[in-house]
Design a protein that fits this description.
By secondary structure, the protein is of the alpha/beta class. The chain has a single domain, classed as Rossmann fold. The protein has 8 helices and 10 strands. The strands form 2 sheets. It has a 7-stranded parallel β-sheet with strand order 1-10-9-6-2-3-5, with helices on both faces. A 3-stranded antiparallel β-sheet has the order 4-8-7. Helix 7 links the parallel strand 9 and strand 10. Helix 1 packs across helix 2. The longest helix is centred in the first third of the chain and has 18 residues. The protein is globular. Bound molecules: 2-amino-2-deoxy-6-O-phosphono-alpha-D-glucopyranose. 2-amino-2-deoxy-6-O-phosphono-alpha-D-glucopyranose binds next to helix 5.
Length: about 260
């Protein structure tokens, strides 16, 4: 794990974008795992800028999103389909057929989850997975108590997560109770990961993930087992960390840390 502490959200987003662009230059048919939420918006914005101004090419990229709410149609403005289309895909040159997002309306969820896992496998596995973190330490929608070896499946959202995400909905009652999410085992299979956090309300979760015990009670702590994870956080989100960490990945050779 390589923890990188940046001054602010913009710096955090640009640092992450540099890594994505670097990997994309090295492997044009990169398989990218993508996350939703407010945290990666700056990363997507910077990648869009790189696409428009520097010709960063997504034409051979395949993407797999982490999760989707059960019951929301793709056109719902709070569905993760809508989020990804509006905030990223419609601005870059990725072919529609190369985008994969769990289907929140599917009737046979178990069969769908097996199919999603198989699609990731057939694509050669995820090269680089983007992750946010919930204030309760969740990654994707793997809530505290999730099995560390779990695969894509349906999960019940905790009240904490529903409250956190209620800010995006017209009323708290509209927040779905279930989601389809990649499992922790699925996420851990990614060859590299970037976990982002910028808000002060993530400081406890970041501390638990990076320096706390490995436990299903903080699903994000599983990154401690991963060989190539970048944790890129702002000073605000890093405020509870006790280790000393570098300012950028380019000056560091500590990926094995
Ligand atoms: C949701 C998503 C997670 C995301 C988390 C944090 O619950 N399923 O993937 O990391 O929200 O969201 P935000 O970045 O808005 O704080």
């Amino acid at each position: 794990m390589l923890v990188i502490v940046k001054n602010d959200y913009e710096e955090m987003s640009k640092e992450a974008a540099q890594i994505v662009a670097d990997r994309l230059h090295k492997k044009p048919n990169l398989v990218l795992g993508l996350a939703t939420g407010s945290t990666p918006l700056g990363l997507y914005k910077e990648l869009i800028r790189m696409h428009k101004e520097e010709g960063l090419d997504f034409s051979k990229v395949t993407t797999f999103n982490l999760d989707e709410y059960v019951g929301l149609p793709p056109g719902h403005d709070q569905s993760y389909h809508y989020f990804m289309h509006e905030n990223f895909f419609k601005h870059i040159n990725i072919p529609d057929g190369s985008v994969n997002i769990p289907d929140g309306l599917v009737s046979d969820i178990d069969a769908f989850c097996d199919w999603y896992e198989e699609e990731i496998r057939k694509a050669g596995g995820i090269d680089l997975q983007i992750l946010g973190i919930g204030s309760n330490g969740h990654i994707a929608f793997n809530e505290p108590g999730s099995s560390l070896g779990s695969r894509t499946r349906v999960k019940t959202l905790t009240e904490k997560t529903r409250q956190d995400n209620a800010r995006f909905f017209k009323s708290p009652h509209e927040v779905p109770k279930y989601a389809i999410t990649m499992g922790i085992g699925t996420i851990m299979d990614a060859k590299e990961q970037i976990l982002l956090a910028n808000d002060a309300n993530k400081a406890d979760a970041v501390k638990a993930a990076v320096e706390g015990p490995l436990t299903g009670q903080c699903p994000a702590s599983v990154i401690q087992l991963h060989r190539k994870t970048f944790v890129i956080v702002t000073k605000d989100a890093a405020v509870k960390l006790s280790g000393s960490y570098p300012g950028t990945w380019k000056s560091s050779f500590m990926l094995e840390q």
